[in-house]
Design brief:
Shape: elongated
Strand order of the largest sheet: 1-2-3
CATH class of the largest domain: Mainly Alpha
CATH topology of the largest domain: Lysozyme
Number of strands: 3
Order of helices and strands: HEEEHHHHHHH
Number of domains: 2
Distance between the termini: 51 Å
Largest sheet: 3 strands, antiparallel
């Protein structure tokens, strides 16, 4: 079978929808939406039937990581001067809460910018995120308080 031709057939017939939609109604699946068909993405990928593979999830995550890094670099002036552990903490929060959400951690970000990682950790522990994802925050606090890594 000519896979390229078949892919073109599928794109024509299924479309290539880049968000989750209901395949019965073509409506976007958003919080509160009552599904009539299958939650579907891309070229007819019914998520409740096929899901995604491990390699597909890693591929998607790597794309998301790149987007988060670019967004943080453009929105957070001190981003490029930070070492790896502090960038990872901020990116982790942005991955979870969105870049806008991460930028709301003003006190933590200010403490990071001055190199006071202990105070930054205190602010993170005092956040609402700690009540929602305590184990994640504990790991991020440990990363925040890790020794500074010089950029070479």
């Amino acid at each position: 079978m000519n896979r390229d031709a078949f892919l073109a057939d599928l794109i024509r017939d299924e479309n290539n929808v880049l968000f989750c939609y209901d395949d019965a109604t073509a409506s976007p699946v958003v919080p509160g939406y009552r599904l009539k068909g299958h939650p579907t993405i891309g070229i007819g990928r019914a998520l409740d039937v096929h899901g995604i593979s491990g390699s597909e999830s890693v591929y998607l995550a790597k794309n998301d990581i790149q987007r988060v890094e670019l967004d943080l670099a453009s929105r957070l002036p001190s981003w490029s001067a930070l070492d790896d552990p502090r960038q990872r903490v901020i990116a982790n929060i942005a991955f979870n809460a969105g870049v806008e959400g991460a930028l709301q951690f003003r006190n933590m970000l200010a403490a990071i910018a001055t190199g006071d990682y202990h105070l930054a950790a205190v602010h993170l522990q005092d956040s609402k995120l700690n009540g929602q994802a305590a184990a994640r925050v504990a790991r991020l606090v440990a990363l925040l308080q890790s020794p500074r890594i010089s950029q070479v």
